[in-house]
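Re: beginner question about structure tokens

> Can someone show what the tokenized structure looks like for a real chain? I only ever see the sequence side.

Sure, here's an example I had lying around. Input first:
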Amino acid sequence: MPRRIAIYEFGGPENLRIEEFSSRPLQPGELRLRVEAMGVNRADILIREGSYHSKKLPIVPGFDASGCVIESSGEIGIGSRVLIIPGSRGLGFYSEEVIVSASDVLVLSDNISYSVAASIPVNWLTAQESLFRRAGLKRGETLVVLAGSSGVGQAAIQLAQAQGVRVIATVSRQVKADYLKDTYGCDVLVAGAEDLPSQVLEMTCGSGADVVFDLIGGDFFRPALQIASNGGRVVQAANVTLRDSLINVRDFYAKNLSIFGFQYGNATTIGLEHYRTDLPKILEGFAKGLYRSTISKIFSMDKVATAHETLVDRSHYGKIVLLPQAGVH
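And the corresponding structure tokens:
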């Protein structure tokens, strides 16, 4: 019988339970997938802790997954390598086997591995939606990405650079700064909330950034407003500390700032369908070698608790991926 990871009680990583389950027969137009890789997202942590919207127990977490078709009642044949479009059926991809509609997968190019595929959807679609559909980022502008070494941060850097945007990334540790400089050639600042405004304003000759992409929240949201240029845009897409953001309204109204919020999981529940057009274009960029995904750590499903602890620790950079079995890619 296939296994999955379920949560029956909110709390710490120890509440992630591996269990066997019985899978149902396929309905017309559905596919049964053997899951080959699962992406680990910050939202999975919040779901496990009971902090993510109003999810009810029990829950099988997981927004991102790739796999191989092992049974088909649709047009996609057995043996096809596919990526599941996130949001198509909500959660439930921390599992060795899933059933999805044939219309909710994309066939993968041979040069995109299962692990890389599972690292793409939520991170890259969050960056795409936030930067271009919300903030309207344009060629020649300056973008500041807070938490630039994160999975979403690295996606934002690459998408922006592909459009001729100057990128300044901020990180918490020098090792992350060195990695981003070597990999993407962008400007990088090792900065805390208190010294961020002075460093960014110095780097931009006092003008600030056209767009600020805040992937930290908490104490960093006010500095994000302070480093935006007159008429600039700030997109807030995470609050990893879960602390309140205390701001002075003069930080934004006096500069005519536009402030946007984006959360991928909630966006799908209110009917945003951009991911269906944006994800194929992103995959095409990967297939052509235009984009890359940094996979920081790979764990087997049996080590899911360690995977969650590693994500919370924030000492890594890039994406964390789960595999059904150790050594399978």
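Each token stands for a local structural state, so reading them left to right follows the chain. The chain has two domains: 3-120+293-323, 129-263.
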